[in-house]
Amino acid sequence: DEQGRAFNLDETIQRMRYREGYNKPPVWMEMGKVYKVNFQPMVTSNYFAPGHRIRIEISSSNFPRFDRNLNTGGNNYDETKGVIAHNAVHHSKQYPAQVTITVVKNK
Predict the structure, then answer these.
(1) What pTM was estimated for this model as a whole?
(2) Could you point out which of 23, 46, 64, 67 has its C-alpha 20 to 30 Å from the C-alpha of 80?
């Protein structure tokens, strides 16, 4: 907003080991490999006034909102030690990143 505050409009989660589906066996990530991820947003709406900006946050966890993620690939309920995850959004000709937003014109 005009005061520089940020507000969450939507949040979603994609645990990468289940990126092929929760009804399929986990698929582990390889360090250094780039993966395509599609997030399914919630239905929401917001009026963005001139000068407002959109911020996207990427994280390995959003505990306690969602189950914790220790970034080990192990059982999150039994393990106690986590490791640091290194997340990146790749945006290039080879790896185009995008956020698609539907705009509804004011009548």
Answers:
(1) 0.69
(2) 23
Summarised one tens digit per residue, pLDDT across range 76-104 is 788 899 999 888 889 999 999 888 888 88
Is the peptide bond between 64 and the residue preceding it cis, with omega within 30 degrees of 0? yes
**Residues written for the chain:** 107
pLDDT in tens, 39-55: 877 788 888 888 888 88
Radius of gyration, alpha carbons of the chain: 17
- Distance, in Å, from the CA atom of 35 to the CA atom of 107, rounded to the nearest integer, reads 40
In single-letter form, the type of residue at position 101 comes to: I
Give φ, ψ of 80 to 5 degrees: -125, -15
The tally of domains found in the chain comes to 1
Residue range(s) defining the domain that contains residue 89: 1-107
Q: DSSP letter for 41, please.
A: P
